[in-house]
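Inverse folding, one chain.
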């Protein structure tokens, strides 16, 4: 008598949750690439679904559409920013960590540029950025930057500096003589940027 096929077991609740979490992360990864390459206006939900290997309706189910997906990416960036800037880490290490994001995850930089050029300000952006300045002011009070420096302008300069090799790739290559996408350029840049930040005291 032929062996009867075993009935498929329905996934347990924890497995379903893991599958859902993995699907959400795949969608967000794909959305980051799509928004980074085309900006918010040019990004297409269908293209994101294809990149993620999911049904387009799943994006609506999890995120409610394009706007919700963009908002989820903003939340992801803010969570990542918090991980990159622990209060007990030296400022030079924090800035170098943000510079590493520009190297390893260039779509974040592209997305920030699209947002800025398009005048797009996500909900809570001003408060989030003010909190970054407040954190730098706390570091100033702890002696990490000179008392004669304005934390708001220092933050603007450091943010731009962290993104510079990606935003100004041709300049980086011409200035340093190293290929714009070479790991050596980014490694040297992070080292030099850390040294510059240490001299802000």
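Residues assigned per position:
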């Amino acid at each position: 008598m032929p062996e009867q096929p075993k009935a498929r077991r329905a996934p347990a609740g924890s497995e379903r949750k893991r599958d859902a979490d993995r699907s959400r992360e795949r969608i967000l990864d794909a959305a980051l690439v799509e928004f980074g390459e085309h900006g918010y206006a040019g990004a297409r939900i269908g293209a994101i679904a294809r990149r993620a290997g999911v049904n387009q309706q799943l994006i609506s189910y999890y995120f409610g559409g394009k706007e919700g997906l963009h908002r989820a990416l903003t939340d992801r960036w803010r969570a990542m920013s918090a991980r990159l800037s622990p209060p007990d880490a030296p400022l030079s290490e924090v800035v170098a960590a943000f510079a590493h994001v520009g190297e390893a995850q260039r779509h974040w930089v592209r997305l920030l540029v699209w947002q800025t050029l398009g005048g797009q300000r996500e909900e809570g952006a001003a408060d989030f950025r003010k909190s970054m300045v407040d954190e730098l002011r706390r570091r100033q009070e702890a002696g990490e930057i000179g008392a004669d420096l304005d934390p708001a302008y220092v933050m603007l300069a450091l943010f731009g500096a962290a993104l510079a090799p990606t935003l100004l790739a041709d300049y980086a290559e011409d200035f340093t003589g190293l290929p714009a996408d070479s790991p050596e350029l980014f490694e040297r840049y992070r080292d030099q940027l850390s040294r510059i930040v240490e001299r802000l005291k």
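The chain is about 75% helix and 0% strand. The mean pLDDT is 88.
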